[in-house]
Amino acid sequence: MRQTLLERTRMSRICRMVLAASLGSVILLVLYFQITRRNPFSSSACCPKGSRTALQELYSPSQVELVSAAELHQARRDQIGETCRVHGSPSRRRRVLTPSDLKHLVVDEEHELIYCYVPKVACTNWKRMMMVLSGRGKYTDPMQIPSNEAHVSSNLKMLSQYNIAEINHRLKSYLKFLFVREPFERLVSAYRNKFTLRYNTSFHKRYGTRIVRRYRKNATAEALQTGADVKFCEFAEYLTDPVTQQEAPLNEHWQTVYSLCHPCHIHYDLVGKYETLEDDSNYLLKLAGVADWLRFPTYTKSTRTTDQMTAMFFQNISAQHQAQLYQLYKLDFLMFNYSTPGYLKWR
Hints:
mainly alpha, 5-stranded mixed beta sheet, 17 helices
């Protein structure tokens, strides 16, 4: 009887040990999946091919020389997040993106990249780069691609061309990036390119004639017909006129980055700046694993719009219109950490 009792006690102890071990295994398994889900960039979570993606390399650098750049871009992401939190209304945060909101997002399936292009921020060269990256060997030298060919929409794969499930997958798992520029410098660059160059007759006709008709007293018949000599102060008045805002969205060349790329709705992993264009571009190419054979083109154009040039253009703008222009581009200034220009009269 005593032996039977001992046997039962021993069996009970063994059962408890087996149960505890099984329960411990289940807990460990649950913890493993929770950790993996929290850290999608861990080596075991995402690389069946045995190579790290650009997104992994950004958030968890495998090379020591990439750590400081990763910290810089984390600070830029934090700046965007804080600006969206403080200045974005709840209704904006809940807004559902439509296909038209995604028309500036270019997809590179080969390297799992999404690029939101912003006109007047080296977008021609970055479109060339995306053609090289996604062309599967069709292109090798970005500067051999004519600029007009880089702007042909059929030469690039746009995110708006995918269905909803495919869009969500790519927004979640691809590295998303854009390049930004000091807002007023970009604005003056757009004005110089579209209104002071003779060959841009389409812009002169479409926008110039309208601007001259509305804001120039005693305009000549030629100016009304061609719209080829728009002054910057007239352009500024056009941008700040409530009627302009009611008519249609601003042209992409002077539309805000906030409206083009929707950084409060799309989490951009990397924000490059025009002021550090080559460094930021080549850093991205390192993340994508292509820096050994592809580098961003060196920028040598001497006619580039500078901060000093921008200040000269703003000299003839009234304090009222300066203040209105700043309000128009305020989110771009704050979101991308550009200080209010010292040349503004109303400061």
